[in-house]
Amino acid sequence: IGELIPPGARFPLEMARDADAGSNSLLTYTLTSDPSFSLTVKEKASGKKQPELVLERALDREKQNSFELVLTAVDSGDPVKSGTVKIRVNVTDANDNPPVFSKSVYDARVAENLPVGSLVLRVRATDADVGINGQVSYSFGNVPDDVSSLFAIDSGSGEVTTVGLLDFEEENQYIFVLEATDGGGLTDHCEVQIDITDENDNAPEITILSLSSPVPEDAPLGTVVALLNVNDPDSGENGQVSCELSGEAPLSIVASPGGSYKVLVLAKALDREEAAFHELVLRAMDGGDPARTGTARIRVVVVDANDNAPAFSQAEYTVRVVEDVPVGSILITVTATDADEG
Predict the structure, then answer these.
(1) CA-to-CA distance for 217 and 225, rounded, in angstroms?
(2) pLDDT tens digits, residue range 149-165?
(3) Which has the closest alpha carbon to 201: 96, 114, 309?
(4) Counting C-beta atoms within 10 Å of the first and last residue's C-beta, which end of the chain has fewer, N or C?
(5) Phi, psi angles (nearest 5°) of residue 134
């Protein structure tokens, strides 16, 4: 910290991270007592609390050139857990202007199919000092691993680019902190919010949950033959799916109230003697532009019911025999057939 920095100046400190949730992750900060410094907490737009070191009185490097402080983060759980970090303040000459970001929050909206290496946004910080004390470099603050695996920042230009493939279905928003540091070690922080927009990059998926096959040919109309789950992880119209059956199928589709499940029911009577099985293709199409489709093949076997009576080959047979025909003689052979099986 430059010795000409006026009292009241604030210096953002590293935020603590707590892997717990709810009240167990609510943090408060304390600082060891020192007349030259105090601690304040700034609440960011995302709700996170940023501890800041506040200079309470003017510094004099010739009297004291360094300070040793301890920052403590305490959660609100029961029992209470805490973490500490040492802060060493070195007093330097004349670098009395920290970098300042042009905005406290930068935001951008990008599509999930953005190619690797694409520019997402550019941040900018200025420093009123000259020479090395006015040269600003950019870096990530304390960010999660999933942020650093997807985004990178150019230390000189402040350009944030993609280094990994984005996926709206996996995460649709990223919020993280960037840091600007001048040649004298002074810093400023800004918050970056990147919203990922959905693209129609997923085709509908059809899962057959249950299938009643074979089906008796005398099964009544409305009999449930199959239960299906149709899912498209995209959002909006890209995830709205309609279904249809191909061919002259004796089945129809009934949607469940929730929309994800479809029921195939008998729409007309079956006749095994006419068709012993039915090969069906179920086609699901989403509402994207262009639309994506998914298909599933279903084979329904029809089993026989005793719905046909035997039938003689002729309705009437006429036989002429002589009166002295021997006993046991064959007079005529009659035949009857039955369309059922077994």
Answers:
(1) 12
(2) 999 999 999 999 999 99
(3) 114
(4) C
(5) -105, 0
- For the entire predicted model, the pTM comes to 0.60
Calpha distance 338→342 (Å, rounded): 10
* Cα of 54 vs its chain's centroid, Å: 41
What pLDDT does residue 259 have? 63
Q: Which residues of 236-265 are buried (b: 16+ CB within 10 A; e: fewer)?
A: eebbebebebeeebbbebeeeeeeebbbbe
Distances (CA, A) of 138 to 88, 227, 257: 22, 55, 52
- Specify the residue for token string 């984005």: 166
Phi-psi region of 332 (alpha: psi -120 to 50; beta: other; left: phi over 0): beta
pLDDT number for residue 94: 77
Peptide bond into 250 cis (omega under 30): no
**Phi, psi dihedrals of residue 131, rounded to the nearest 5°:** 65, -150
Task: For residue range 163-221, list pLDDT tens digits in order.
Answer: 999 999 999 999 999 999 999 899 999 999 999 999 999 999 999 999 998 999 999 99
Task: Report the alpha-carbon distance of residue 179 to residue 123 in Å, rounded.
Answer: 10
Q: How does 286-299 read in b/e, with b if 16+ C-beta sit within 10 Å? A: bbbeeebebebebe
Structure tokens at 119: 């520019």
Q: What average pLDDT does the structure give for the chain?
A: 91
Locate 185 and state its tokens: 């070690």
Residue with the two structure tokens 């004796």: 250
Query: In order of start, what are the domains of the chain with their CATH numbers?
Result: 9-90 (2.60.40.60), 100-197 (2.60.40.60), 205-303 (2.60.40.60)
- List C-alpha distances in Å: 66 to 9, 41, 90, 186: 17, 23, 4, 15
In this structure, are residues 125 and 103 in contact, taking their beta carbons and an 8 Å threshold?
Answer: no
CA 288 to chain centre: 17
> The tokens of 8 are what?
């009241």
Q: Which of 232, 15, 8, 31 is nearest to 98 (CA)?
A: 8
Cα diameter, the chain: 151
